[in-house]
TrEMBL record:
Stored SUPFAM superfamilies: FabD/lysophospholipase-like (SSF52151)
Keywords: Hydrolase, Lipid degradation, Lipid metabolism
Active site, UniProt feature: 49 (nucleophile), 211 (proton acceptor)
Organism annotation: Oleispira antarctica RB-8
Domain PNPLA: 11-224
UniProt protein name: Patatin family protein
InterPro entries per the UniProt record, alphabetical: Acyl_Trfase/lysoPLipase, NTE, PNPLA_dom
Motif DGA/G in this chain: 211-213
GO MF annotation terms: hydrolase activity
Intervals of motif GXSXG: 47-51
CDD domains registered for this protein in UniProt: Pat_hypo_Ecoli_Z1214_like
Pfam families reported in the protein's UniProt record: Patatin
Keyword Hydrolase: yes
GO biological process, one term: lipid catabolic process
Length: 394
């Protein structure tokens, strides 16, 4: 069928801890909008932090996309904090003790894994629910072109995108950004989701890595290096592109408030900035005639972009579910975080509870369906497949 857009589509799943449940709702809505016969619509999947977990899970089901979406939703709706990190009193106190001991006597305990929380339960969970071997099978069979997981090197200071994909893709290197061919496994996911000081860093090869959102100045870049020509970004910022109203200061910021601010800076700001940068480049390229670009050897072309962000504040949603966080964790955070204004920013990252995740999935599903016309235009090749199927049946 002529006129079908066959550009490679890249899916960008940003980080954000428990906020990433929202992405599952959007993916579910897209699946609902596309025809049932459609194959995996994402040629390239790039994920960071919790978004990397979603991305790898989705990639492992690239040959059966419908089952993959249901599998993701089933995982998130059955979540509870103790499946992600230790919530028992002994586990929390032990983690805090290691952190304090290493801070005070670092030389003696330099090999301790230090963090506010012990996320060893997450490693156990991921090893059970993600079939890593299926990723290469999907690539070999053409159901997936490539996928990558990004981590932040603590020694080198580089943002490293570990990718697994088609043999034609080569490693790349930019200023503090590199792409490195790897066989994606559990360590890559644990490293990419290792929120600094909250979850422990993970050693891959000869370096320790922390959450990929840290120092990731260009979150869209890895997908472009892997060959994406159209980009779908599913963000987790309910305040994207909106200026917040000033509130009256009632006291010194709580530790949870400060940590929430730092997490927002790491997870949200760089993605919003990169999206804005891509939009500005697209406008510039559109003003330069194609003939002029060819004449002067300009390897520039507009990248179609579709960005979907939460229509509601995730902090406020988290504030409604604060009691679902284990009491010992609330105490570890200094007792703050009881409302959206005094600390639920950090709660929205750590609140891996069924109620909160279900609300975010429902919000993502609603927001996705509200963008149906844009989604259909973006996935025009898959909608064209639907038209062809209808013609044959007639």
């Amino acid at each position: 069928m002529t006129g079908i857009d066959n550009k490679k589509i890249g899916l960008i799943l940003s980080g954000g801890g428990a906020r990433a449940a929202y992405q599952v709702g959007v993916l579910k809505a897209i699946h609902k909008i596309l025809p049932k016969e459609a194959k995996n619509p994402y040629d390239i999947i790039a994920g960071t932090s919790a978004g990397a977990i979603n991305g790898v899970a989705l990639a492992s089901y690239a040959e059966n996309h419908r089952i993959g979406i249901r599998h993701l939703e089933r995982i998130w709706t059955s979540f509870s904090p103790e499946l992600i990190y230790r919530t028992d009193f002994k586990g929390v106190v032990s983690a805090l003790a290691r952190l304090t001991r290493t801070t005070l006597i670092g030389r003696k305990y330099k090999h301790d894994r230090v963090s506010l929380l012990d996320n060893s339960p997450l490693r156990t969970l991921l090893s059970k629910v993600i079939h890593f071997d299926n990723i290469q099978k999907a690539i070999d069979n053409g159901a997936l072109h490539a996928m990558c997981v990004t981590g932040s090197g603590l020694d080198s200071g580089e943002s490293v995108s570990f990718f697994q994909g088609h043999y034609s893709i080569v490693n790349w290197q930019r200023h503090r950004r590199i792409g490195y061919r790897s066989r994606i496994g559990i360590d890559h996911l644990m490293a990419s989701s290792a929120i600094p000081m909250i979850f422990p860093s993970v050693k891959i090869n000869q370096e320790y890595y922390a959450d990929g959102a840290v120092r990731q100045l260009a979150p869209i870049s890895p997908a472009l290096h892997l060959g994406a020509e159209k980009i779908l970004v599913i963000g987790v910022s309910g305040e994207a592109h909106k200026r917040k109203e000033k509130v009256q200061i009632t006291g010194y910021p709580t530790p949870a408030k400060v940590m929430g601010h730092m997490l927002n800076a790491a997870f949200l700001d760089s993605m919003e900035t990169d999206v804005e940068r891509l939009q500005r480049i697209n406008r510039t390229v559109d003003r330069i005639p194609e003939s002029v670009r060819k004449k002067h050897g300009m390897e520039l072309k507009p990248i179609e972009l579709l960005e979907i962000n939460p229509s509601e504040s995730m902090d406020e949603i988290a504030g409604r579910h604060v009691q679902e966080l284990p009491r010992v964790i609330r105490l570890a955070l200094g007792g703050s975080g009881n409302t959206s204004r005094n600390g639920s920013g950090i709660l929205s990252y750590l609140l891996f509870s069924s109620g909160f995740c279900k609300d975010l999935i429902a919000l993502g599903y609603k927001d996705g369906l509200a963008r149906q016309d844009e989604i259909e235009r973006f996935f025009s090749n898959h909608m064209a497949e639907k038209g062809t199927a209808n013609e044959k049946s007639a």
